[in-house]
Design brief:
Layout lengths: L3 E5 L1 H6 E11 L3 H8 L3 E2 L4 E5 L2 E5 L2 E2 L16 E4 L2 H12 L3 E11 L2 E11 L2 H24 L1
Antiparallel strand pairs: 1-8, 2-7, 2-9, 3-6, 4-5, 5-7, 8-9
């Protein structure tokens, strides 16, 4: 099976500079995985947190499954992320540095299992964003000029 993207956190790529990336499994209930298969996931505004040596995904919205029956799941409950102990240690070291945070970048299926791509990130200031936009505009103008001449 190939990878299929379920949801992306585009805002994160705009607001943060991604320093490291990790792939984590996620513990989901039955009705949650059915909602995920329907692409009813919102990662914007969510984050991951270290708690008691484990990683948890917080504020990620997985909409309730329509045919869940008598007990639908809580859409924004805390969900456990699955990583190797060494990876969690590396993340802990990175997060101890001031100004770094752990954010989900995307959710996707890999060999039938739901995975979350996490990024250790540093928040961008407003002037950083402006500089990035200027650089993008310059690159776009250069590419257009090359196309016109060629």
């Amino acid at each position: 099976m190939s990878e299929s993207t379920i949801a992306q956190n585009r805002r994160a790529r705009h607001d943060y500079e991604i320093l490291q990336r990790y792939e984590a499994g996620i513990v989901l209930s039955g009705s949650e995985i059915k909602s995920v298969r329907e692409h009813r996931v919102q990662l914007q505004g969510s984050y991951a947190r270290l708690r008691d040596g484990e990683l948890w995904l917080e504020d990620a919205n997985i909409a309730p499954y329509a045919n869940a029956g008598y007990s639908p799941h809580d859409p924004v409950r805390r969900r456990k992320l699955l990583l190797h102990r060494k990876e969690i240690g590396k993340i802990r070291e990175a997060l101890e540095e001031k100004g770094l945070t752990l954010i989900p970048l995307s959710m996707y299926f890999k060999r039938g299992r739901a995975k979350v791509e996490l990024g250790v990130a540093r928040g961008l200031k407003r002037y950083d964003k402006r500089q990035k936009m200027k650089e993008r505009d310059v690159q776009r103008d250069l590419a257009q000029a090359v196309r016109r001449r060629g």
